[in-house]
Amino acid sequence: MITKNISVQIKSGQEVRPVAILVQVASQYESKIYVESGSKKFNAKSIMGMMTLGLNEGEVITVSAEGNDEVEAINDIEQYLSGKK
Q1: How many CB atoms are located within 10 Å of the residue 27 CB?
Q2: pTM for the whole thing?
Q3: What's the CA gap between 9 and 22, in Å, rounded?
Q4: What is the DSSP letter of 30?
Q5: Could you tell me the pLDDT band of residue 63, with boundaries at 50, 70 and 90?
Q6: Is the dihedral of CA 73, 71, 81, 53 positive or negative?
Q7: Which residue, 36, 39, 23, is CA-closest to 73?
Q8: What confidence tens digit (pLDDT) does each residue in 15-34 have?
């Protein structure tokens, strides 16, 4: 299992699109992927969970992945959240 703190650098506001794209990115991988913010932890592949969590620009979240493609999953999610993808 890999765990990484990532600073969110995408604009989110009230828009659902950034969260939906994050779910799409996470869903490409077989690994179990979770996103934590404060005391909240949600499956990154669950649109409802991720909408509840929300993503705020500048916020630092913890992303964890466990599975055969965990390294690629974490790297791809970090690329998206950092605004590089």
Answers
A1: 13
A2: 0.90
A3: 13
A4: S
A5: very high
A6: positive
A7: 23
A8: 568 889 999 999 999 999 99
Both tokens of 25, joined, read 């990115």
**Inter-residue contact 66 to 23 (CB < 8 Å):** no
38 is written with which tokens? 């404060």
Question: Whose CA is closest to 35, among 46, 15, 10, 85?
Answer: 46
Query: What are the C-alpha distances in Å from 9 to residues 1, 23, 56, 59, 81?
Result: 24, 16, 8, 8, 6
pLDDT, residue 15, reads 56
- Whole-angstrom distance, CA of residue 85 vs CA of residue 27: 16
- Give the dihedral sign, CA 29/59/81/16: positive
Cβ atoms of 29 and 69 closer than 8 Å:
yes
